[in-house]
Amino acid sequence: MQRPDAQADSDGKVARIQVFAFAPAVMEDLPMPCLQLKTGDSMPEANILQSLSDSDVVAVYFEKFSDGRGFSLGRQLRGSLSCDHPLVANGHIIPDQADYLRRVGFSHVVIVPETLSQWQKSLVAVTHRFQALNTSPRTRSRPRR
Amino acid sequence: MYKYDTIDRDFLDRRSAQFRDQVARRLSGELSEDEFKPLRLQNGLYLQLHAYMLRVAIPYGVLSSRQLRGLASIARDFDRGFGHFTTRQNIQFNWIKLVETPDILDRLAELDMHAIQTSGNCIRNVTSDPLAGATDDEVENPMVWCEVIRQWSTLHPEFAFLPRKFKIAVSAGAEDRAATGFHDIGLRLVKARSGEVGFRVLVGGGQGRTPRVAQQLTPFLPKKNLLSYLEAILRVYNVAGRRDNIYKVRLKILVEAMGIEAFSDAVNMEWVGIRDSVVELPLEEFERIQRHFARDTLPPADLTSEILEAYCGKGHAFERWMRHNVLPHYDPGYANVCISIKALGRPPGDASASEMERIADLADRYGMGEIRFTYSQNVVIPHVRRDQLIRVFEGLGDIGLNGGENGLIGDMIVCPGLDYCNLANARSLPLADRIFQHFADAGLRDEIGKIRLNISGCINACGHHHAADIGILGVNKKGVENYQISLGGRAGEDAAVGRILGPSFDEHRVPDAVAAIVGLYLHRRKPDETFGDAVVRLGVDVFKRELYAAA
Asked: Is B9 near chain A, with CB under 8 Å?
């Protein structure tokens, strides 16, 4: 897969995501060490914090696109868990969810390459914001903007 | 009322274009039906028994005369000349073609309207008191908060794929006219002893297969924390709500399974991380919204009217209409007119395009150009000068709409039933007509007084039978349509789920059964005691014995 568009700090760890990118790849290609979660996962905060410190990237697997638990997981990772890693969505997700994924804190999605243009189109189809979210300083927005 | 600006309009244009693209991708096969379904549902589009149905959002039941005329034209151009007012203050068009839907959405956008989140597993259109901002019994105008919630919930990225639909109602009146106790979240604006206004928050209410009255989550939530608290509740539901069993996916099931205290703990754990954060609504944005709902300056109205005096006290139909359909206003020189669109031979909630246009005309001429839809599928014209009421009565008479009685036995909430719905077990509309005919005597209806009789064609309870004084539920008994009767439900204050009386009846026997129940009430009631209060005092078993002794 394409490496996440990220900056590395002095000791080489991924420090900051610059933009939302699309990564046409399969799960096995994710950079390691990778913390792999799936929608519905809930683990004690201490465990997840330890796992985050041992990982360069976090991936959330969506078993079904209509299972919205992954969106809350994204926000929890970016919010109370202060996760600043590349956050990758994979599994059954559809292009129409692109902007939702980005806004709850995902920085990357794993897609089928042929759908790339639709993903890019969907990402900018509706860009209005009616909520301010605390997913990270980069995705914070003001209402109606 | 809230007026759209360029940001709101640009949003609707883009959303409409997005849905046009999604429809094209579905028609080309790029999107599977499984993938397209939630997208179309979140744009209000259902597939019903005979055709597609489009549910249009009327935010908290408020619309302008211009918007109502626009809906009338859509009914003419894309439906069969009718619209259907729903119990959640929306309007539905029942004969829609899929390929025409994007055009309808464009037409709606021209009216500053849409169908976003009127269905699907997301936060639905917030509902409220149809008299909001026009009555003197409210703590403050709840529409301001409805609009705040409407905007916050619109395309909320975290809550677009919830376990199931999610309904919020806001009420601020001494009387709960928004059925907050039967919503996933019910918000009651209350004033603390200190004078501070906040929200009493109820959770876990709902009807359907497992009817539950909402429980109190907190007695007082500061207004400034509303959005973070809603997000915390929604997150707990989104993460912990069941998704494995369609009958157990609503918030009421989660609240019951966890217990209200454990649910409260879970909400507070989420809340502590986002309370007073960027999630809260900025004060300047609140004030921007609030300005849209400032009270209009009403021209002084004459409190004494020769016209009213000429008709009242003489048994004229106008006097009856005044008694049942004219509701108090905060200004004694004004009133709120409730138009009950229930009548023999017409599906409750249905209105024709020409009726909608006439109501819009009356709202322009005698009101402030504003119309409200009610929980009971009726229409309210707020802010009518009392000395103009006779003109409204006559104007409604021109289209046969001044005979409906708000709150009497004919003012039923009735779902479409087996005639139109692919979920129903039994027909609802013909049964409503039978009951209507049985109580054709206006004097008898007056004598019975306030009573709510609701009919649902199946356990999904779209006709709100659980929340009715007399609830009627269609059931399938060995292939035959039958009806179960329940008693003692309430939607407002002291919300309660009705209790099933016993074995069901066939459609021919239901009117007599209702008459037996009502007859006992008339025989045993105390002076000025309503049907609902009599059921509480006497107990359901008294009525049960009478009913089955007669049967």
From this structure: no
